[in-house]
Amino acid sequence: MISVRIAPPSSVVLVEDLAGGDIPVSMNGSLVVSTGSCIAVGCRAEDDGETEIVIDDCDRADPSMELVFDGMLRTDSLRLLVRTVLGTVLLEAPVPSRETQLSIRADSTNEPGRIVIGVRQNRLT
User: How far are the Cα atoms of 5, 21, 63, 114 from residue 92, in angstroms, in the given order?
Assistant: First the structure.
C-alpha cells in the first residue's frame, strides 16, 4: 500500500499509465469519469482540506467504502500513476499487465476525504 494526502488543484486527480492517457473532457457532475486510458476522480473541495489517496491490492478493499469505479485501464508501460490535473505525480506503482483491472472506492460520493484505488494483481482469464 502507498498513499498520499493532498488538496489537489481543481479537486480532481487523474489515474493513468506512466505514458499518459486521454483525459475525460468533463466531469459532468460525476465523482468519476473515464476513458480507456485515464480515470478522473473528484476529491474533497480544495478549500475544505486534504484527501487521502491510496493505491493498494483489490483484495484488501474496505467493503464499507462506496465502489465508484470498477473496470479496465490501459497501462502499456506497466506503471500506474496518480497525478494532479497540473501534471504533478502523486503516486506511482507497478501493475501486472497492459490492461489493468481497477476498483476505486471512496468514503463519500460527494466530496471524499479518502479514495482507495485497488489494483487486481492476478489477471483473470
Answer: 14, 15, 24, 17
Of the candidates 91, 86, 87, 88, which has an alpha carbon nearest to the alpha carbon of residue 117?
Answer: 91
DSSP 107: S
- Structure confidence by residue, pLDDT tens digits, 80-124: 999 999 999 999 999 999 999 999 999 999 999 999 999 987 654
pTM above 0.85, yes or no: yes
CA–CA gap between residue 36 and residue 47 (Å, rounded): 30
Q: In what order do the strands lie in the sheet with 2-6?
A: 2-6, 51-57, 114-119, 99-106, 66-74
d(CA 120, CA 39): 16
